[in-house]
Amino acid sequence: MEDRLKQLQAEALEKIEQAEDLKTLNDIRVAYLGKKGPITEILRGMGKLSPEERPVIGQLANDVRAAIQVKLEEKQEKLSKLEVEQKLAAETVDVTLPGRPVRTGNHHPLTAVIEEIEDLFIGMGYTIAEGPEVEKDYYNFEALNLPKGHPARDMQDSFYITEEILLRTHTSPVQARTMEKHEGLGPVKIICPGKVYRRDNDDATHSHQFMQIEGLVVDENIRMSDLKGTLEVFAKKLFGEDRKIRLRPSFFPFTEPSVEVDVSCMCGGDGCSVCKHTGWIEILGAGMVHPNVLEMAGFDSKKYTGFAFGMGPERIAMLKYGIDDIRHFYTNDIRFLKQFNRA
């Protein structure tokens, strides 16, 4: 029995010395010191030995186990250090290599125009208001002086989800909701940017989903001249100080009087293909808030007046950057987007 234990010790120490990785070392540990290993079997058979042999063999078995355990720990520490050194060598970074340039993206032209418009109106004291894209018929139409059956509803062919729920056709519902929250007390001074949806065939100038920015001011003694002055500042800041605007009579159910707003063309009035040789380009619709809209939102129309305007950022971006097809904004063509430097 003694010879067997000494033989096991010699075999184990030799294999430990030859081990080249931690997995092999662990296999040796299990083979010699595990529950099914030869040393454990010898200890389990101690009952068959004579009383005189038991203490001798027991002590020797423990000494062999201890010697193997010490050798395993020494080898494990050595292999662990070696493994770390090899890993560090494999992951060494040459800090003298030139860095890889980080390619920055561009602002989408539509995003750039929207942010420019937002910054302009924030500088004029406006706040940004938002509302749901899935809207109630009441806020989308009825609260804006468009009762059920009104013929002007046909101008905005809508995506209805139920009879009373639809995808909003303009951001005007945000104005109605904001006025309602004010509970008849002014002032209100907001712009409402966001997506809107209409049943339209996609072509170079139309899309079934597009952006819109609307503005609203409600307070005492608000006049048409305030609207014109605001839009003049807007046009000059966005298109250039030399630009002029003109107001043409129009009709919108939620404003009275209503106007279409044109900005002078970059051709200086000489006439070109952009302005169709008129010298003017239509950019938005506007007007004084209809008394019915004020009353439905809880405002006293004899005390408060207001103006509203609405514009399409796609239209403005197309004019500002000379883009000839609205579909370019939504096709994610990297060649198109690379043309616009990050602002």
Automatic annotation (TrEMBL):
Keyword match GTP-binding: no
Compartments, record wording: Cytoplasm
Domain Aminoacyl-transfer RNA synthetases class-II family profile: start-end pairs: 111-319
Aminoacyl-tRNA synthetase found in the keyword field: yes
GO cellular component, one term: cytoplasm
E.C. no: 6.1.1.20
Catalytic activity: tRNA(Phe) + L-phenylalanine + ATP = L-phenylalanyl-tRNA(Phe) + AMP + diphosphate + H(+)
GO function term, MF aspect, one: magnesium ion binding
Cofactor (UniProt): Mg(2+)
SUPFAM superfamilies: Class II aaRS and biotin synthetases, tRNA-binding arm
Binding site for Mg(2+): E256
EC class name: ligase
Note describing how the cofactor binds: Binds 2 magnesium ions per tetramer.
PROSITE patterns: AA_TRNA_LIGASE_II
InterPro entries: aa-tRNA-synth_II, aa-tRNA-synth_II/BPL/LPL, Phe-tRNA-synth_IIc_asu, Phe-tRNA_ligase_II_N, Phe_tRNA_ligase_alpha1_bac, Phenylalanyl-tRNA_Synthase, tRNA-bd_arm
Superkingdom classification of source: Bacteria
Keywords: Aminoacyl-tRNA synthetase, ATP-binding, Coiled coil, Cytoplasm, Ligase, Magnesium, Metal-binding, Nucleotide-binding, Protein biosynthesis
UniProt xrefs under Gene3D superfamilies: Bira Bifunctional Protein, Domain 2 (3.30.930.10)
PANTHER family hit by this protein: PHENYLALANINE--TRNA LIGASE, MITOCHONDRIAL (PTHR11538:SF41), PHENYLALANYL-TRNA SYNTHETASE (PTHR11538)
NCBIfam families hit by this protein: pheS
Oligomeric form and interacting partners: Tetramer of two alpha and two beta subunits.
Protein name from the UniProt record: Phenylalanine--tRNA ligase alpha subunit
Organism annotation: Calidifontibacillus erzurumensis
Higher taxonomy: Bacteria, Bacillati, Bacillota, Bacilli, Bacillales
